[in-house]
């Protein structure tokens, strides 16, 4: 924890547009550490702290075995949740969650609950290999949950 905080403190945090927790791996596996760090930064920088976003698979409640959404209130400004697919079967085939197809509904439930605590909840998909019908269905899913949908363009590296 202290090492991560030290890394932040070595930077000009107020000059950043946003603080984003993401990377190779799911940030909510270390939710307690993440929230502690956000609390420390908010205490140090107050209103000068840039908005805080978590890029997530939406499995935080599954991972932590409880509803963590209330813990996000006042700490997280944006949740970017990888929807990835318009159905559980394709989602499981693409993401390989240990809970199988059940993880898809858990992710949707998390998004719907989180909007009560986090100002901006966004589902994301990548347009590669998506039919217009699938994209439209993803738009409907987001609309039904009362959250935004962000369609990202595939960039071939």
Low-confidence stretches: none
| Radius of gyration using CA atoms only | 16 Å
Largest sheet: 5 strands, parallel
Share of residues in helices = 40-55%
- Looking at the structure, what is the overall shape? globular
Secondary-structure topology with pairs:
Elements: H1 2-9, E1 19-21, H2 31-45, E2 52-56, H3 60-64, H4 69-72, E3 78-82, H5 88-95, H6 102-114, E4 120-126, H7 132-145, E5 148-152
Parallel strand pairs: 1-2, 2-3, 3-4, 4-5
Describe this structure in words.
With 157 residues, the protein is of the alpha/beta class. 43% of the residues lie in helices and 16% in strands. It is built from 7 helices and 5 strands, in the order H-E-H-E-H-H-E-H-H-E-H-E. The protein has helices at residues 2-9, 31-45, 60-64, 69-72, 88-95, 102-114, 132-145; strands spanning 19-21, 52-56, 78-82, 120-126, 148-152. A 5-stranded parallel sheet has the order 1-2-3-4-5, with helices on one face. Helix 7 (132-145) links the parallel strand 4 and strand 5. The N and C termini lie far apart (33 Å). 24% of the residues are buried.
Based on the model shown, name its key terms.
single chain; 5 strands; alpha/beta; 7 helices
Give a brief rundown of this model:
With 157 residues, this protein is α/β, with parallel strands linked by helices.
């Amino acid at each position: 924890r202290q090492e991560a905080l030290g890394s932040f403190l070595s930077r000009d945090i107020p000059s950043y547009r946003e603080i984003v927790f993401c990377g190779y791996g799911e940030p909510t596996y270390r939710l307690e550490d993440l929230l502690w760090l956000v609390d420390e930064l908010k205490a140090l920088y107050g209103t000068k702290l840039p908005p805080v976003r978590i890029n997530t698979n939406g499995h935080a409640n599954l991972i932590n075995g409880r509803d963590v959404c209330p813990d996000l209130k006042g700490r997280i400004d944006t949740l970017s949740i990888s929807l990835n697919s318009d159905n559980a079967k394709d989602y499981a085939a693409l993401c390989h969650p240990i809970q199988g197809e059940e993880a898809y509904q858990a992710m949707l439930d998390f998004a719907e609950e989180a909007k009560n605590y986090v100002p901006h909840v966004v589902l994301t998909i990548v347009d590669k290999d998506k039919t217009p019908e699938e994209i439209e269905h993803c738009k409907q899913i987001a609309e039904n949950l009362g959250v935004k949908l962000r369609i990202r363009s595939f960039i071939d590296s």
